[in-house]
Give the backbone structure.
Amino acid sequence: MGGEGHVPLFKTRRAKGRFLYRIFAASMLMAICLIWAYRVIHIPTKDGRWGWIGLFMAELWFGLYWYVTQASRWNPVYRSTFKKRLSQRYGKDLPAVDIFVCTADPVIEPPMMVINTVLSVMAYDYPQEKLSVYLSDDAGSDLTFYALLEASHFSKHWIPYCKKFRIEPRSPAVYFLSTSLLHGADQDKDFELIQVQSNCWRDSFCPHSGMTSGVMSDKLYEEMKNRIETATKLGRIPEELLMEEKGFSQWDSFSSRHDHDTILQILIDGRNPKAMDVEGSKLPTLVYLAREKRPEHPHNFKAGAMNALIRVSSEISNGAIILNVDCDMYSNNSNSIRDALCFFMDEEKGHEIAFVQCPQNFENITKNELYSNSLRVINEVELHGLDGYGGPMYIGTGCFHRRDTLCGRKFSKEYMNQWKMESIKTEESIHELQERLKDLASCRYEENTQWGNEMGLKYGCPVEDIITGLSIQCLGWKSVYLNPARKAFLGVAPTTMEQTLVQHKRWSEGDLQILLSKYSPAWYGLGRISPGLILGYCTYCLWPLNSLATLSYCIVPSLYLLHGIPLFPQVSSPWFLPFAYVILAKYSGSLAEFLWSGGTILGWWNDQRIWLFKRTTSYLFAFMDTILKLLGFSETSFTLTAKVSDKDVSERYEGEMMEFGGSSTSPMFTILATLAMLNLFCIVGWMKKVGMEMEGYRTMGLQILLSGVLILINWPVYQGMFLRKDNGKMPCSITVKSVLLASVVCASSSFFH
């Protein structure tokens, strides 16, 4: 592809210290094998036999799973781009980019959040005539459409403002909040200058808002926000606007969010020479789509919405590159498109790359990461490791795709980069074009076609993004991981314990379904992608299977401690050393990874807590639901994660106080509380039996340590059950139930040990 004088558009750097890490990993493997040997050699003949075997099975699983996770740490790579070279080499000959934003519920995903994401991607530092933004609204909400209509007017002022002053980020809500926090009453002179200048150009071109000179630079935004939030609160659009805007007539035949015709509205037509901002520059195309829904037709969740967007956009803008983002993931870096193009348009390696994946980062993470929702180690360690084996998986948001790879194109060495896609030329009016394209988003369009199978995103799994990315890689394509210092996208993380556990249940359930499907990386990827990448996929597909082994370690040692039966070697035994080494090496390595990734010590401790909570609840229910689905007792469902929370919930979250929900009766909380009480009862009961007798402590040292750590890690649960009085405490019904369950288990355990 590239000649001898080729100057690359991106650089790949392999991580330092790989040799030392491999020595560390080899020592861990030896210690794990010694633990297995100890279990086999010392199986008891009487007391503790079944508990011993149970722990051996758990340790066997932990060791094998640890081996699988090493794939993402064995060969990490780091990428950096040269955007100046891209501009110098291609100038204005850059490809068109279509941006897909997906939303599905105006209550869980408020319209104001959605349009802030839309406005942030409309304002990319990229030729506006080559940008097209599509909003897929799977709820078919007229409130979301109204918000987008308002955003289309506001964008005429917002986009030139962003480019004139090169502001970051370009989500209006985040930008105005940050400027008010930075400046407050004593506003900086430079900011005052921005206000004056922005008011000057606004006053000249603002008949829509009726603004006068001297108004604050965020006045337009606040007025728009008030109109949208008022309409959202009332649940209806102002009557005068319904009469004025023809687009609302498409809701005349609307029955419900699950039963309606296709609604398609081109709000800004990039073909129209009059589609200009207030400074006379071109605006990006802006399109609203609510695909047809009928109760008798499966709609295939987000994958179906994405495939409808692919078809509709191919007839409007047909961008060679497609970026898809969730409605809560606003653009935090206006140069992200150019970063991605440095990979796609590199003359030597660009033709191999199907998609560029950015990490999923969040803006509302607390200092010590209360619910460990930053995905810190995944983003900063594991995805870089997968990049060393041919690329990360597609995670469903913040991903730049080649359009033709999403449509099922296979890779060939003869493939040439072709960025000048055939432009869409039509003499149709907007109305005629909209009516013609509605059929592409109808329920019946995909019948007897390869959509959802060989074309577009795959159907049949809650994590359709993972199998779609895997399928693309199995066709010979590669992907790359883009993780610049300034994050490309920022979203909203769950702010309650229940939201966190439900989200991970959905993710892990989908991953396990992949493992058991025809798209399992274990056999679908065999011979098509590298063994390291197969193991990388399996790291996440095997999440739910960790639940049984973790439950064994949380229950069995504590119950046997209660009855004075040792399951681990004494501190004075040589066999104690491999256990001690694995414990110290594993957790010191984990802490080092977390700190290296930018976390805190307390954040790491919270990460360990949530790791335990997820394995004993989210992964357990994911495992059970997957088995029930295989047996035909349940169907695939898709649960959205709430993006908003009450004021008092937010205050507790910001104060890093765990939210158990005063009215929640989640069975996940019952499990957490029961395990916490079980370990507390066991260690208290054992101490009452042995008192201060040192021999008991030497004999049961590791079991005491394990139960003690479990009690410490469950401290927020005890607080929620007994010490807190706020609305975020553990419900009384769960507290009573868990105490009774733990008591029954402890009392009956003597019959089984």
User: Anything to note?
Assistant: Confidence is low (pLDDT under 50) at residues 183-217. The radius of gyration is 28 Å. The longest strand covers residues 97-103. Residues 406 and 456 are 5 Å apart (CA to CA).
